[in-house]
Design a protein that fits this description.
six-stranded antiparallel beta sheet, Immunoglobulin-like, mainly beta
Amino acid sequence: MKRTLPALALLFSFSLSAQEFVEVSYGQSYKNQTYYRLSDDAVATIDNNAWDIAFTTFGSTDAGIHLNESAASGFPTIEAALYLAPTTNFSDPITPDDLTERLYNDEKSWEYGAFNSTRDVNDPADFGWGMLDAGTGNIQGNTVFGLRFKDGTYKKLQIASLVQGVYTLKHADLDGSNETTLTVDKANFPDADFAYLSLASGQTLPSLSIDWDLAFVRYADPNDDGMGGIFQVVSSGVLSAPGVLVAQANDVIPGEVEFADYEDSLSADINVIGADWKTFNNISWELADDRAYFVKTSNGAVWKLVFVEFGGSMTGNVVFTKELVVASGTQEAGAFKDVAIFPNPSALDATFRFSTDRTGLADIMLTNSFGQTVWSGKHLAVAGLNAVQLPLRSLVEGHYFATIKLEGSVLTRKMVKL
């Protein structure tokens, strides 16, 4: 079922029982990217035109590079586009007509972006834009790209290397003139997952001011063309952050659906919410009234979201309800208190300490920023103080989440592996 809503935003924010109405905006004509945190409704907004390329900064071995696919609506609308160049020699001149294969970000993961899309998925050393040297741990670039900017101009670009956490890239006009070399150092972004770079200024943006859970952005969304192929449409949607899990509940009564029935459906795919929670019928926007989303944040809290209003390009406003259905793991919840991980950050192993008033077999697991379990174990908890060793030394650098479950109580703590 769908309900038809006027293409005007409903502006309000108040509490109703355990449910809250929240408004987040893309801005008029979808001019912004807005990053949102569920716990306190904090937002950080970036203009669509502020950056061109985002580099992952999760740890020492990641090398994902994303294109800024977001663009404001207009007539005509031109979004940035990345193409594979017909040469591997950066010095070779190319023309726009030489650029044929268009490359897109991976819409399901932050691990890889458009610059990684040509990689051999069966070769862990292949990052698409370059190859990993297992002996040195460095990645050397071997691919040339053509980049069309939103103003219709072109550059050729190559990610030259990633050495000791420093990306080096060069770009030039298609004929080779105006060559520029830039560097992006992961060490400058210790608490961020991405470094956003503007090619025009040669500068990176400051890290986002919040740890976000959901990104309200425009992105290239693959659609079935009905003939066995795929076509890409730049859509206004919602993507989840690294470490956030989402489950979609269809054909339900949103006020009655329970998280327990969908816990096993939680996914680390970043586009579970995506762009299909609304459709346009040529007159107004329609939102499904039989759909809800469960969003599990990196601290273990679970929220139920129901979208109730979308203003489209006229306002860019989105209204949804949120309801906390599982308490945050950062609180001293349920069976646990005096919780700590030390040392944190840690280059070797760490100790997960907690106190409880119960005795039972506790499940403990470590997940990475993509929601993947990298280690799990059990601990016979006793009433009083408990300590569990977390085996970190074999893990790559980055952000991780340690979760403990005991008799229905769940608690999660964030940690950093150096």
